[in-house]
Amino acid sequence: MAHRRRDGPPRHRARRPGARSHRARPRAHRPRGYAVGPVLGEGAPVELLGLRFPHRIGLAAGMDKDGRGVATWGALGFGHVELGTVTASPQPGNPRPRLFRLPESRAVINRMGFNNLGVHALADRLRTAREQDLVRIPVGVSIGKSKVTPVEEAVDDYLESVAALEGLADYLAVNVSSPNTPGLRSLQDAGPLTALLTAVVRAAGGTPVLVKLAPDLTDGALDEALEVATAAGVSGVIATNTTLSRDGVAPRERTRAEAEAGGLSGAPLTLRAREVVAHVAARTELPVVGVGGIMSGADARAMLDAGASLVQLYSGLVYAGPTLVAEAAEATSRR
């Protein structure tokens, strides 16, 4: 069921900087305390999912699939990091080339295909970092389906990742929306999504589980997915992943964009991602993590105003550089 505050203001007001934050249900264990290191810019702390975030800006999944930088992202100014997407089985991903810049459009096309060393390698690295007290910010892990696993066996595949990450991830993000793994997006349909989320939430125990949805879903499909997610007991929604649409690409880059398979991110996704966040936030009590086309502090603020509780960056870093973290943190801290 959705997690509702009994003693606070309505959801949308609770998410504004300076107001009390929406809280998910209590976790089975006490939230970890983080000694936050130097942050490149000022931000307002927020409590969400049973965790304390130094500010609202985080690193989206995809940048650090195997957790190699888990000890350094906080020092770069991020308020949280989402590692992965990781799969139960190690896999090389799709053949190269698989990542393309569209500089005039300020966009990126990727068809990486969940290249990663496998969940057990990530778990070992994260365990070592925690044992050495190197983790300074909340760390989520995005989990996906191994390419070798048939869609019909997806639940067991995800559950292997859940088990491997027990006690290591501050939250889990169930990725059913990448366009680069055959059949994966079919898991957003009501039947498969119900089975998957119910099983993952049960196996995760007190660890918050979020579901990451695609920007290409119709409003009706979004509503259906939200109904399923709420009934399954997830703790939040991440909106959105990359898009298969090529709308918004600069005319001179359109031909290339249409020729390359994969998910599009960056500036062409800004408005659609914001629309999805607003749609989700208006229809659920669950907190929303906004991601997609955050190219400036103003974009981050607009995502917050649309209803997001946290905001994540990825492609914006490619074009704006690391100073975008501080800019976005400051923009989302103002009353």
Automatic annotation (TrEMBL):
Q: What is its main location?
A: membrane
* Cofactor binding description: Binds 1 FMN per subunit.
For membrane topology, the record states: Peripheral membrane protein
Query: What Pfam families does the record tag this protein with?
Result: DHO_dh
- Describe the reaction catalysed, as an equation: (S)-dihydroorotate + a quinone = orotate + a quinol
Localization annotation:
Cell membrane; Membrane
Q: Which positions bind substrate? A: K65, N110, R111, M112, G113, F114, N175, N180, N241, T242
Using the record's annotation, list all stretches that form the Dihydroorotate dehydrogenase catalytic domain.
46-327
Cofactor(s) of this protein: FMN
Lineage: superkingdom: Bacteria
EC?
A: 1.3.5.2
Basic residues composition-biased segments:
1-32
Active site (record annotation): S178 (nucleophile)
For this UniProt record, the keywords arranged alphabetically read as follows: Cell membrane, Flavoprotein, FMN, Membrane, Oxidoreductase, Pyrimidine biosynthesis
Task: Please name the pathway.
Answer: Pyrimidine metabolism; UMP biosynthesis via de novo pathway; orotate from (S)-dihydroorotate (quinone route): step 1/1
GO BP annotations, alphabetical order: 'de novo' pyrimidine nucleobase biosynthetic process; 'de novo' UMP biosynthetic process
SUPFAM superfamilies on file: FMN-linked oxidoreductases
Residues where FMN binds: A61, G62, M63, D64, K65, T85, S142, N175, K212, T240, G266, G293, Y314, S315
Of which family is this protein a member? Belongs to the dihydroorotate dehydrogenase family. Type 2 subfamily.
Role noted for this protein: Catalyzes the conversion of dihydroorotate to orotate with quinone as electron acceptor.
> Subunit structure, per the record?
Monomer.
Q: What is this protein called?
A: Dihydroorotate dehydrogenase (quinone)
